[in-house]
Amino acid sequence: MDSVTSEQRQTLHSTADNGLKIVVVGGFGVGKTTLVRSVSEIRPLNTEETMTQAGEGVDDTGGVATKTATTVAFDFGRISLDAHNVLYLFGAPGQERFWFLWDRLFSGTLGAVVLVDTRRLADSWYAIDRLEHHGTPFVVACNDFGGPAHTTGQIREALDLADEVPLVFCDARSRESSKQVLITLVEHLQSAVAQDPTPQPIPEPAP
């Protein structure tokens, strides 16, 4: 697993003048905070709070009984693509009671990553529905929780994914794995731009 020390964190280029926004969404406990944390070049902003008994009966913790903290607003990270273009990552909270925040987080979004736990695929339906409603391009990334193996065909059928939506597998704890998810999204966005030349072109991801 890759790790990033404080000495490896990067400062923002003084020439950076174009901010690009990507949102990471998905069900409760699928690893959104972990993905943003693993791939961000800066120390990410997290709004995690300790889960208490007050949340019992409100948040569905089925399948994530060992989870002790939860995002209550959003996660935020940053990646410099080149000297001028900066990618800003926003991780959305997964609990149903925070879904009202999602529409605001989607504002100005270039594209999205739907992170899923294949043991709880139904938890991803809302995220996919909202992205399709907003017309936001997205990819689906299956985070590895060590559950039963599923084929891409089985997952696509369960999520009713269109053929053009990329589906990848990842380990959100790994910087390299999370980076590949974002590269897949950027390539998907480039493909969409090629079909409709009206939007501004998407810059190549940094190596």
Determine the mean pLDDT. Answer: 78
Q: Which residues form runs of ≥5 with pLDDT under 50? A: 1-8
Shape field: globular
H-E order: EHEEEEHEHEHEH
- Please tally the β strands and state the result: 8
The biggest beta sheet is recorded as: 6 strands, mixed
Proportion in helices: 25-40%
The neighbouring-strand order within the major sheet is: 4-5-1-6-7-8
* Structural Rg: 17 Å
SS element count, helices = 5
Estimated structural class? alpha/beta
The CA-CA distance between the termini, in Å, is: 18 Å
Give the percentage of residues in beta strands: 15-25%
Family: Belongs to the GPN-loop GTPase family.
InterPro entries: Gliding_Motility_GTPase, Gpn, P-loop_NTPase
Protein name: GTP-binding protein
Keywords: GTP-binding, Hydrolase, Nucleotide-binding
